[in-house]
Amino acid sequence: MDLGIRGRKALVTAASKGLGRGCAEALAAAGCDLVINARGEEALQATARALETAHGVTVIGVAGDITTETVRKRVLEAAGAVDILVTNAGGPPPGTWNDWNRDDFIRALDANMLTPIALMQALVPGMAARGWGRVVNITSQAVRAPIPALGLSNTARTGLTGFVAGMARQVAPQGVTVNNLLPGIHATDRAIALDGGVARTEGISIENAARQRMATIPARRYGTPEEFGAMCAFLCSVHAGFIVGQNILLDGGATNLTM
Prior knowledge:
Blueprint: E1 9-12, H1 18-29, E2 33-38, H2 41-55, E3 59-63, H3 69-79, E4 84-87, H4 102-130, E5 133-138, H5 151-171, E6 176-183, H6 189-202, H7 206-215, H8 225-235, E7 247-250
Helix pairs in contact: 1-2, 1-8, 4-5, 6-7
């Protein structure tokens, strides 16, 4: 399927690996030029060169912590007038409800709520003025069914979801769609970290911890960054203009909901 976005320009954050890279790869394959961001300079630039080589597009990497105003300004200056924004950030650490203090919550809100909002506020007005734009926020399945050990993520990402629910309807008349992708467990560093925590707690191997988790997923496997990226690219395509303010689960059926 031709996604109709060849020649469009996209900004993808946390794009050097994992789900962010999956999204960047799919957009590059569709012919989009990219500005990508991640904390690690070496991995980011390696990703940028790999995407350029594989897909013949222009990719600019701007390294640094996107939650800081200084780095966000550099990224936005490099991005300029983008047509597509994909926001992504690693999840905060797990724990129990009384483990976290105010600073922990502020860090989670900065990474998983306030930074995506700041990027949308900076870039969506230009999209609206030009009459076309796509925003995809990578959140979590925890937005639909909170995960007890991920209270910081539950809190911050649900806040972003509430913001998008209203904002998406306000910009839709200008041809801009805003939606959220809710990943379950995918084969990324995040899955390794979570499985490692289970392995340490239960005194089992990380392989056994992964098998236990996979057994709770109807698809009996973890998702891949490639299939996640394909869904992201579709939401950014010309075919997705009637999808507005939605929260789309990609979790292999793990979240047991009727609707």
